[in-house]
Design brief:
Radius of gyration: 16 Å
Number of domains: 1
Distance between the termini: 12 Å
Largest sheet: none
Number of helices: 4
Strand content: under 5%
Number of strands: 0
Structural class: mainly alpha
């Protein structure tokens, strides 16, 4: 058994998560807005969501190598970094952050859901393609 391709697994699992979250949002159009509203109302959820995203982003960032010749490893590492930045935004500026998403989801829910599906599918295929 060879070494584990962390980038392939990270890409596949992030991709499947995004793909199915997007499908769920298309099936239940108000679900994301409801989740954001619940986070906005609950300091405990704000903290838990921020810390969970920080932890997941940190693991993805630290576990994936930066190999300039490997585009997927660079993309996954960058996603981990963006997740950490977003988590800090949630922890420090949740009122501003949730208002942005509530406005955005009101007018562009289907667009965000479809974008999430496309991103998820792309990451899933890219990750799965690395398995031999």
């Amino acid at each position: 058994m060879g070494p584990i391709d962390v980038t392939a697994w990270s890409s596949l699992m992030l991709g499947l998560t995004a793909l199915f979250a997007g499908i769920g949002a298309l099936r239940k159009p108000g679900a994301w807005r409801t989740m954001i509203e619940e986070v906005e109302r609950s300091p405990a959820l704000q903290f838990v969501c921020g810390m969970l995203e920080l932890l997941v982003g940190m693991v993805i960032y630290l576990a994936n190598p930066w190999i300039p010749e490997d585009l997927l490893s660079c993309i996954i590492k960058a996603l981990g970094g963006f997740m950490m930045i977003e988590a800090l935004a949630i922890l420090g500026f949740v009122d501003i952050y949730t208002q942005f998403w509530l406005r955005s989801l009101t007018h562009m829910h289907r667009g965000w859901a479809m974008s999430t599906v496309v991103l998820g599918l792309a990451l899933s295929v890219a990750g799965a393609a690395r398995f031999h």
